[in-house]
């Protein structure tokens, strides 16, 4: 149809035909190159131009104070038979409740109940949500601002040496931190923290580590606490006492369990300098890769993470400008 129209047009007037074709060519070229400021489908542009015009959204963040802190002391010595040592650091008097052999399904059903039904602000609330689907429970009182080492161990009469093959229906240990005083629950947005801990046994020898941590809010939401990856200091070398064979074994076990190594790597010594200008203070977290490597001046120039080259979908600042100014005044 178009060919018939062009032939008819040429027979009518060759000059008019040339003018129409030339006009169509100019309009098409202008659309492709963006002369008119209109949006053009991505397929008509090269990759570099598409990346340049991609808009990175700045995520609106709300700062909340987490009253709970939990870490594993000497993870290399932990096992199902010998137990585990946990170090707590809480801002208020708290209760540490440990559930050995907690059901995976019942735990995540309990988290959904915190969102839809009732708030898990006490150990009893979690027990009700779990329907007692755990093998053993122990509880400790934690004093505020005291880094206490708590030794947890299964009783010998349970005769439990492992939790079966992967995939498992039970987590080795789930640790719940809650505020001991009811009045303190009105002060903090975060009312409890659930930590899922892997402990090696005879069947699954992956080194001891915290797999997941969930922060439970008074409003009913719960959030998965993720590690931020800071830019490594060039002058420091990460300390790693494990041999290459042990690292290879851990990697294969992680892949078997469906976990990525990046999610469970131990933290390294970090630098506070921007990886681009080497002058500004690192302040921006890039999502979804969670690399924290850019300062306020450099973040606006990047649509890809300078560390892993992944496209940046969102970003947020660790500190506001007012907080940075306060820190500068303190150092003066």
Automatic annotation (TrEMBL):
Please classify the protein's predominant subcellular localization into one broad category.
endoplasmic reticulum
Localization recorded for this chain is: Endoplasmic reticulum; Nucleus
Domain RING-type spans what residues?
274-309
Compositional bias per record (Low complexity), positions renumbered to this chain: 233-246
Q: Which is one Gene Ontology cellular component term of this protein?
A: nucleoplasm
Give me the segments passing through the membrane.
15-38
Q: Name one GO biological process term.
A: negative regulation of cell growth
UniProt keyword list: Cell cycle, Endoplasmic reticulum, Growth arrest, Membrane, Metal-binding, Nucleus, Transmembrane, Transmembrane helix, Zinc, Zinc-finger
Q: Its Gene Ontology molecular function terms?
A: zinc ion binding
Ranges for region Disordered: 233-271
The task this protein performs is described as: Able to inhibit growth in several cell lines.
List the protein's name: Cell growth regulator with RING finger domain protein 1
Which species is listed as the source? Rhinolophus ferrumequinum
User: Gene name on record?
Assistant: CGRRF1
